[in-house]
UniProtKB/TrEMBL annotation:
Name of this protein: Flavin-containing monooxygenase
Organism: Salix brachista
Catalytic EC class: oxidoreductase
InterPro entries cross-referenced by the UniProt entry: Auxin_biosynth/cation_transpt, FAD/NAD-bd_sf, Flavin_mOase-like
Family per record: Belongs to the FMO family.
Length: 409
């Protein structure tokens, strides 16, 4: 009788609660990897190459959810393809220097297929704790229908990304504003904004490119710039700015490379401060190293600011039904607001009561205590994640071999 009722009410959370149904337990012989983005896939592939099978847990129903679900249509990699490859498999030769979003997604799908990575989808990791007595991690997930599973594993690799959650600032009067307000993670393209006045808040790479996209769709964008920022051309002297920087850093100190980058940017882009974009005191690479703040790589937005197609505005003071009041006291009407205010990571929520999650910066940040690892948290994009992934796979393999020897002894 109970079986019949259970069948009928399968996945009914209320029923589970009434029946006091306990979570499912799964024992995983290899490492558990949380997140099926580029970082998680890279670790799983490196492990598989060493003959270590892992289990990848992903909260959405696809791999690379950031790229598939939360990015805009016109997005391309900003860095040349050789700096965005995952370990063990390069991009197809026919891909352009800056692959499109679709091409990058296709590459990741092929990567997962090649290394036979089949993540468990719709499993959100909510909690992870280390059991000192048994020497195993307990990783709790919640499924689509709130069903709970506890995975037990010896190694835990956190690959949930630096962009796991959208940062949505609280702006005075936000509830009162009559137009659409959306974060860039929900922005696909500018069609719906044709002829509309749109205020883009935040001038990182997303905000800058969304403004350009809005221009291309005959919308009228304004951009809120409340602090200083570095804008560099995506390419200088016929080479990618990123590639050029990496090459120069082999020979010159960072500050000299920064001076070079700023001199060439001044020649090609002009004085950005005259457009309302003041530069920080620190150079672009020094700032990136110290704070993680990525310089904006210009793909055409600056020309639209120069031509007046994109207006620069100061910080917002408050919103009213149709208007935005800026900190200087000026007000202006807008039809919609796009929050290009960035992202934050979520991994700390899982480890609320536990020590051992790596806090040290690169190059040691990838390894924690008790078989815990972190991949993709060094603010060095896909290239940084690939470096982490290789180290983690090597470390896990070494641990396994050591344990195997100990067991024989
Ligand atoms: C618009 C945009 C463009 C970018 N372009 C570049 C670029 O050109 N070059 C570059 O090097 N970097 C770029 N980056 C940086 C970006 O961080 C990397 O591209 C890359 O996606 C990072 O991979 P990741 O796997 O670490 O994180 P993500 O791609 O964010 O993947 C993390 C995965 O973990 C899953 N997850 C999160 N929390 C949980 C949980 N609790 N339980 C289960 N699963 C979970 C997520 O759903 C996601 O699928 C860009 C970032 C953005 C936002
Ligand atoms: N093609 C590509 O490769 C692309 C790469 N990216 C990458 O994705 C990551 C995320 O980029 P992005 O989404 O631009 O996020 P970022 O974190 O880089 O930028 C967020 C911006 O929002 C501003 N901001 C935050 N809160 C407020 C507020 N309350 N009022 C006004 N301004 C605010 C910040 O300015 P402040 O300094 O004032 O805090 C900053 O300029 C980055 O690593 C970026 O390089 C993004 C787009 C394209
Ligand atoms: O897009 C990003 O944020 C990246 O992390 C890529 C990246 C890493 N280091 C940089 C230095 C300059 C420009 C982009 C990057």
């Amino acid at each position: 009788m109970l079986e019949r009722i259970e069948g009928k009410h399968a996945h009914d959370p209320l029923f589970d609660k009434i029946m006091n149904k306990s979570p499912r337990f799964v024992s995983v012989p290899g490492p558990v990897i949380v997140g099926a983005g580029p970082s998680g896939l890279a670790v799983a592939a490196c492990l598989r190459q060493k003959g270590v099978l892992s289990m990848v847990l992903e909260r959405f129903s696809c791999i690379a959810s950031l790229w598939q679900l939360k990015t805009y249509d016109r997005l391309r990699l900003h860095l040349p393809k050789q700096f965005c490859e995952l370990p063990l498999m390069g991009f197809p030769g026919e891909f352009p220097t800056y692959p499109t979003r679709q091409q990058f997604i296709h590459y990741l799908e092929s990567y997962a297929q090649k290394f036979e990575i089949g993540p468990r989808f719709n499993e959100t990791v909510t909690h992870a704790e280390y059991d000192k007595v048994t020497g195993f991690w307990r990783v709790k997930t919640v499924g689509k229908k709130t069903e709970e599973t506890v995975y037990r594993c010896r190694w835990l690799v956190v690959a949930t990304g630096e962009n796991a959650e959208a940062v949505v600032p609280e702006i005075d009067g936000m509830g009162e504003f009559g137009g659409d307000i959306k974060h860039t993670s929900f922005y696909k393209g500018g069609e719906e904004f044709k002829g509309k006045k749109v205020l883009v808040v935040g001038c990182g790479n997303s905000g800058m490119e969304v403004c350009l996209d809005l221009c291309d769709h005959s919308a009228k964008p304004s951009l809120v710039v409340r602090h200083t920022l570095h804008v560099l051309p995506r390419e200088m002297l016929g080479k990618s700015t990123f590639g050029m920087s990496m090459w120069l850093l082999k020979w010159l100190p960072l500050r000299l490379v920064d001076r070079f980058l700023l001199a060439v940017s001044r020649l090609t882009l002009g004085d950005t401060a005259r457009l309302g974009l003041d530069r920080p005191e620190l150079g672009p690479l020094e700032l990136k190293n110290l704070s993680g703040k990525t310089p904006v790589l210009d793909v055409g937005t600056l020309a639209k600011i120069k031509s007046g197609d994109i207006k620069i505005c100061p910080g917002i003071k408050k919103l009213k039904r149709h208007t935005v009041e800026f900190i200087e006291g000026k007000t202006e009407n807008f039809d919609a607001i796009i929050l290009a205010t960035g992202y934050k990571s979520n991994e700390r929520d899982m480890f609320s009561e536990i020590d051992g999650f790596p806090t040290k910066p690169f190059p040691n940040g990838w390894k924690g205590e008790c078989g815990l690892y972190a991949v993709g948290f060094t603010k060095r994009g896909i290239l940084g994640a690939s470096v982490d992934a290789k180290r983690i796979a090597e470390d896990i393999e070494r641990c396994r071999n050591e344990e195997a020897v100990e067991n024989v002894d």
